[in-house]
Structures are given as structure tokens and as C-alpha cells.
## 1
Amino acid sequence: MATGLKSTPTQTLPPSRSATLSGGTNTPAHTCRLYRPERQAEAKSIAASPDHSVVARGIGSAYGDCALNRDGAVLDTTRLSRILSFNEDTGVLHAEAGLTSIDLIDLLLPRGWFLPVTPGTRRVTLGGMIANNVHGKNHHRDGSIANFIDDITLLIAADPDQPELVTCSRDNDAELFWATLGGLGLTGIIVSATIRLKPAPSAWCKVHRERAHNLEDALDRFDAGDDQHPYSVAWIDCLARGDRMGRAVLMRGDHAQPDDIQGPGKSRYVTPKRAQRVVPINAPGFALNPVTVGLFNKAYYSSAKDGISIEPYADFFYPLDCITHWSKLYGKRGFHQFQVAFPTATARQGLHETLNRITTSRQASFLAVLKRFGPADPSPLGFPIEGATLALDLPNLGAKTEALYADLNAITLEHDGRVYLGKDSLLDADTARKMYPRIDEFLRTKARVDPTNRFDSSLARRLDLRVRTNGADA
């Protein structure tokens, strides 16, 4: 539990329960006090309680421990999910933070609007996207979600006895605005936000696929063709060796125009319902190994056909969402995701050394993604830097995986890169400070709005993203 929280008269709190929670990786798992408020006033009473610290949590898809709070409180925002206003002419949406991408897209895509930036799953809330300052397949052109957020209403605890709602924007407390974007929920509870949506001419995507023989070929193809498409991503074979290391399937996408949608039964804003598959139980530990993953990677690469296809938006943006509980493929111990970004000057060498270390480790990952990043934004904890990013899953093999992760971090630091805090579960505080030199700037803002660490998490304690007073935790 957080220490140093000043005692106040007992607050009237909504019902809660003890729950062992984990994120999308199934590891780590921490016991927390879980609240699920239905009104903003209830969220305020939870934040005002001196008995615990609190972190907000949405659907629970966040990787790592950023939405966990061991022995503290977790505030489930999914009932705080109202659309407060929407301008159908401009696409400007004001909504509560618990609104999910699933509901937003289902409601507004048929009206011609889509998320301006989306991660690789629809299982995410508006608040989660802001807290992690998410990026998507279009960062090289459009940047992170921050570029489309006009304002954020936040529950802060400058006076821990009387939490209050404040609204921040680029013009009104820009320091708090940018600290909250990518701030992992540590500046306060995101209550609502205003976001500018993107016009969508249809619910389909025009996808250009091409295979690359190795990492160098993939990066060359990115450089040559990315500027022609708003969305770009590549699947990478992390087990291929030698001159095939980093072989890839590149996928560039555009929103399909009405004239692109041809064929019987095709409708502009209606796509076929996807067959939903379920992984009912945790796979045995030996299921994902270099042999099985190698066979999958070989089959996927061989079956990919160069050319253009018209596909439902969900197939392009959210390929894994059609598999319920897909993380169970990694077994009961779960997995760690490693996502690294390298600046342009060092990206090729950094990616080459990273892939070489992964392939020699033979720690299987059938899901690895390579993308280009555009310029960074002013967020002090923002992850993207202009260059390239690689994301992959590492099955949790205990000490063996931790040793690999340490080696990958060393390569990252050597090439001026950084790992994504929103997906991390193994980084230490010293390494985080080397990767994120603006942490102290972030903590100065946190000290102003949360001097007693009322808003805290397992990640914050692991990475020491906490306010200190006279050299000690507040």
C-alpha cells in the first residue's frame, strides 16, 4: 500500500472486492482492491480515500503492470462510458474515458467516422489510449493519439483530502496535458476527453502486400513506399537466420473508397461477421517452441501473396481480435512483450543486433511487428521517436527470458533507443531513466497534482515513477 497518505474521516465508498488481476500478457498477476464505479462522484470518493492508492483500468488489455496496483485500489472505468456529445459534421467527440473502441467504432463507423489512431486491438478504452499515448500503423504520417486529443478532464489530488476535476489542453495547463498523455494514469484518473475522429469512406481497407527477403530489404521497402499510404506495418519472422534474418511481409493500407467495394453482397459500411475462435484453456508449455513457431512462420511467409486486396477493416487493423483469449496460446505463465524504438540514425544497426540476439536465443515469437515512426511529440514519457519500432512477444520462461530481456535492453541503450513503458513488465528504474531522460520533468508535474502519490501502480513502484519528499517516498 502507498505510504504517507494523510488520514481523513471515513469516505463512503462504492462496493469493492479483492481480485487477482493481470493484463493482456497474463503476467504479472497482482492482488488488488477492485472498484467499478457507475458515477463520477463514486470515482472521486475512491480517489479521496486515505486507505489506499489507486490506478484506473479499462477493459484490462494493457500489457505488463501499468494498470495493476498490488495491495492498492484499481478503478474499473468501463461503466463510466457515456458519449457526452458528438458533432456529426466535424467528427469531434466528447466522451467519458471508459468508452471502448468496440462501442465507438460500432456506433460511429456507419456514420462515416473512424479512430484517427488505433492500436492493434479494439479492446481498449479512450482513457487507456490517452494514458498510453497509443500509436498505430499510421504514426509515420499522423503521429500518436495525442495529435487528435483536444482536451482531457482529469481527477487530480493536489489536495489529497479533496480531489478535484480539472480540464487541461494545449492552451490550458499544457504541462499537465502532455504529462497525462503517456503518463500511465499517474497524474490522475482520466474522466473524459475530446477527440477529433477521422473521416472513413467505408468499412473496408485497400491492402497492398509484398514480401521482403530480409530486414534490410524490408527497411528499404519502407523507405521507398511508406509515404504513399497512411497505414504501414510488417510482420517479421524472428526465427529466420543468415541472409533471411528479418524476412517480412509488408502490409500498406488505405481506407477503401466506395468504388473499390465491388461484388455481390458487399456494403459500404457493413462487413461480413468474422468467425470468432476461442482458445478455451492455457496451452501446454511446450506448444510454442522453435519448431512449431518456425513451421508457422514458414507457412505464413510462403502463403503471403504480393498484390492488392479489399479487406474488412477489422482484418487489417485487428487481426488477433477474432481469437478470444489468444494469449492463452502462451500457456499459464503468459508472456512478456518487448517493444523497442530506435532513432533513424541507429535504427538499422539496432534492429539488426536485436533480431540477431532473438534468433540466436530461439525463444519463439510468432507475432512480431515492424513499423516506422514519425516525429516525437512533447509527452515527457512518450515512446515514439522518429525512426523504427519492433514489437514481439517473449514466452515467459522465467530466468531465461529475463536474461534475454536484459541483453535486449543493453542493445537498446547502446543505440539510443527506448522500450515502450505501456507494454513493459521487466524494466528496472535505472534503465528506464537512461531511456527516458525527461522522467524528472514528468515527476515535477506529478508533484503539483499528486504530491502524496495517491495515484500509483505496480509499474510506478517498479520504475520509481513516484514523488519524493526530502529523499523519501511521499
## 2
Amino acid sequence: ALAEAILSLIEAPAMATEMGAQGRARALADFGMERMHERIDSFYCRALNTVQGAPTSREAMQRP
């Protein structure tokens, strides 16, 4: 089945290009720098929230 799928992409380069572009867009949306920053930030905010009196969001943690 895998060999057949590869052959179909070889025979239809436009489809292969489109699939590659869609895969890249999805990877950037799920694992791009901005998304990973949001996920790490969220993790630390949740971890800090377990401490009594700790800020619950990144904005609350920033000091003027």
C-alpha cells in the first residue's frame, strides 16, 4: 500500500506538492516557534498557579 501511494505521488507531482505544502502548514501551526512558545508559557503559568498567591497568566507575571 505504501509503495502504491508513493508511486501515485510520483505520477502526480502537483498533488505531491500540494500535500507537502499542507503538511508544512500543519507542522508550523502545531509546532512552530509561536505555538511552542504559547505551550511552554501555558505550562509554566499552570505550574506557578499551584503556588498560593502566584500569578495565573503571563501578563500578571510581568512587572512594570
## 3
Amino acid sequence: MRLTIVYDNTTRRDDCGADWGFSCVVEAHGRRLLFDTGTKGELLLANMSTLGIEPASIDEVVISHEHFDHLGGLPAFIDRRGSLPVHLPRGCPKPAGDAGFSWVNHQAVELATGLQSTGTLGGIEQGLVVELERGVAVIVGCSHPGADNLLEAARAVGEPQALIGGLHGFRRLGALKGLKLVCPTHCTVFKGRIRHSFPTAYRAGGVGTVIDL
């Protein structure tokens, strides 16, 4: 699996812009997915271009939840890319644009071989579970249902080895014990505490970050 952060509150590169929101490109099992779309479509597309990722190369989109900083860039992306499958959490309003929208209910569902949604947890948010050679990686938007609950849902597929994305004010850091990689991005409040508690597993985020697992 290769994951490239294309939208985040911070950036590692002077030629990419930072803004409140999150988006990453996940390449695994012969597929290339866009997970979330940040706030501003023009910045999302500009960062993708700088990082050498063509919209036409994206096979599917997964939206974690309906908040503007994860869904806002979608209409501009669809306008540039054209119609493609877009997997939304249950209850999310239909976005603008001509695409193959589908809604994920509470149950976990396979999106493609080796790629699964946790199902919509807490009535608001889904995570992406990527099968690795051993265990799984869990990609999250804001972790509104709790990172521990998203990790537990992922265990239906395999033991989590990595957690990447926004964690908001998540405090139950014991739930992260045993992870080989933790990359807290975007809205995470306790990045410093996570870095201190898990110095070996911790990985800083920011636009331009590339993670290979």
C-alpha cells in the first residue's frame, strides 16, 4: 500500500498549499482511491497536480463523513475527473456532480478486493480498511465515533497495524498500543501526546507525506 496526503492543515512542501481539511490517495490491490477531498476543490486539484497524481488515475472516491472539510472538494474533483464510483456514509446528502453515488450502511462492506469500509459508525462516519501482507491499515477522516471504535470495526478484517488520519480530541491513547504506525493529521488535538507516547510508531503528516506499507 502507498498513501499520499494531498490535503492537510500543514504541508511538507513549499510548492503545495495547506488548508483546514483532509484528503489522501491510497494505492493498493491494483486500485487507486481518493479518500476525502478537503475543503477547496481548486487547492485539492493543484496539490494533486504538483504531486504528479492525475484525477483520471483515480478509480473510486471514499468520503468519511459529510463535513465541509472532507466533502467540499468533491464537486470540483468530479467536474475534472468525470463520473466515477463515490462511496458515502449513510445519511450523507447527495453531493453536486455527476457520479455513481452509493451509501454505506452500518454494516462493513467490501469496496474492492482488499479494500473495505468499516460501515457508518455513530451515524456519521466510515473508515477505510486496507488489507496488508499482515494485518490492515485504517484510514480515517476525523474519527468522530472514536478511533478505538474504528479500529475495533477494522478487526473484522484483520489486526490493525497502522492508523492514518484525523483523530480530533481522542484521549484513549491506550487503544493505539501495538500499532506499528500512527500518523495523526488534520484535526488531531493531541499530536504531541501521541508522539511522546509512541515515538517509534509516530509519523508526522502534512501535504506531500508518502507512506509505504
